[in-house]
Protein 1
Amino acid sequence: MKGVSNFLIDLSQRLLGEKSEVSSEKNSVSSASLLEKAKLDWYAAISLFNNLTDQDLVDHAIFNLNAVERRYSYLLKEARREHEIQKSYFREEEELKGYD
């Protein structure tokens, strides 16, 4: 599942022009830094939309805002899911220590 997640992140970065290649290998960038970058991209898209002076760019700004919003939401959901898995793992590990 993690490989698919990394592939989708790589693909979205390529589509957004942040990368020139899509790789199916594990990404060396941490989830936290990807999440922070997505959050900054979201803020930038909101700012672009709110500060438009050319009405011809409205469609682009809306499309861009929707895209980065979905990416940020997805990464946030994945981070929460990974956090829950880690909490569960450590909880089980602590329970097993009680049996020693």
Protein 2
Amino acid sequence: MYKYGLSVKFKCTENNGEKLASILLKASELVSTANGCQLYLVSLDREDSNTVWTTEIWDSKEDHDNSLSIIGVKELISQAMHLLATPPEIGKEIDVLGGYGINP
């Protein structure tokens, strides 16, 4: 059984990359105990400080979708939306086979 993975690119308005990253790190704390969450990684782009990436691995897409219902997540999403220059861009949805650090 594959795990569900995705990367998302967030392009922020000028000088808001670190602020958005902070909000997404709070989101990672909320979803860290969600059913099926294997990884929620927040990264700043080295070439563009106004771009933030998330990399997520879940047991299933359903687990990912259900995480949006966790108390506090929607509030963080609303805080983040006004910092964005463009809508979030799903970079890639992938089927994760496994590897070091991923629970079977």
Protein 3
Amino acid sequence: MSQLAICAIFKNEAPYLLEWIAYHRVVGFDHFYLYDNDSTDGGSALIRASHLGAHVTLTQWPPRPGQLSAYRHFIDHHAHSCDWAAFIDIDEFLLPLTERSVRPMLDRMPHASAVLVHWRVFGPSGWMERPEGLVIDNYTMRGEDGFSANRHVKSIVRCVDLLDVTKNPHEFRLRGQPCDTMGRPVPNIGIQATACHEALVINHYQTRSRQDWLEKIHRGSAMIEQDEPKYPPALLDHYAEISTVADHQIQSFADAVRAALTSPDPAPDPALLSPDEAIGWAPQGDAAWNHPDGLALVYRDTGRFGRPWLGALRRSAAGRIDPTFLIDVEGHIRVFATDRAAIAACEAALALLSSAEPNR
């Protein structure tokens, strides 16, 4: 199973870090290499205190500007551990448009050294102060696809073909050809002649609320040292004016994101798997399938359609043992430290179910 990673640098983004990590876990990313550019709001501590921190490699990164040097550090020290790496920012959310994961699209790109993904730029959606709740729920108004800023791309790079970043964080030196999200060869440049909004896009919440916009201006850029703000305050009004398209598509992931924020990787929902993903069925109702997170062993009462799945045991393809989960007959999740304990609990649950329903 390929390892999908994200590399990003952040500064004083604490209110948004956990949602951003949880969301990208939901859409198929395995690990996050995050560079803390001298934050003062406790973002790194927040990640370490969360169960999501198990999927994050945090590096304190004081250089100013720090984005390009952080990317080079990732290339030199971590890229060899990954198959694909997305280089995006904390206000950018990779959104698969036709599937529930980024992975299937990448699997269809064996010829691509990188996939260049276009922005859809969102405005403040009427918010003056930072609202409670998820970014993906609160910001729903964006510019039309023809808006000029949407020609910008960010890169998901095949790491074996990754040589270096250029002077532009939107562009990388590659061994081979980059493609758009439909697999068509495109120039290796950060602003394309036309935008492709098919299969996969980036929801770019560039402003968020007016409060967030002013804080963004104050904290400056990770790309340049500057005496004047990178963004003029009045630009927010422009984004508010051009954001005339209501877009709720990303909200289909909101419940899964909330679940990922509150519990450590709940077991995958078998209903989301297509029939051809099943490897086989044992007579008692055991099943194994290839899931994006690794091999899962699942125990199910097959006597009744719709009965809950009794357990999910996961092993990461990377060789590490992930937390092991059991879903009991009432749908509650239990966590086990070892495979052996989870298997014993699954077998006990099956035995109990068999004795309670002898005619199943």
